[in-house]
Design goal:
Elements lengths: L1 H16 L5 H8 L3 H10 L4 H9 L8 H5 L7 H8 L4
Length: 88
């Protein structure tokens, strides 16, 4: 999962650096699927507490790459943390 987080961060940086370019064009230029690039960019805005838990190996057992890439995480960090079980 740490590799996925690094990849997501790089995707965000790439999109922010070329904000005038569409995701479709960026994905084509980078040899990626647009859907995958979109998922990575969304994941790049994940709660720092979730990232820290993953890096520490302390994430909830059900939190895996499939959950992270599902696109179902809310925008609010607090809501993300509640959803994955880091907040009660």
């Amino acid at each position: 999962m740490t590799r996925l987080l690094r990849e997501a961060r790089r995707a965000c940086e790439l999109v922010l650096a070329t904000s005038e370019t569409s995701l479709r064009e960026i994905a084509r230029r980078e040899g990626r699927c647009r859907k995958n690039l979109t998922q990575l960019v969304k994941l790049g805005w994940i709660s720092p507490r979730i990232v820290e838990a993953i890096l520490d190996g302390a994430q909830p057992g059900h939190l895996n790459t499939r959950v992270l890439l599902s696109g179902n995480l809310p925008l609010s960090w607090r809501e993300q943390e509640t959803m994955v079980g880091l907040r009660v």
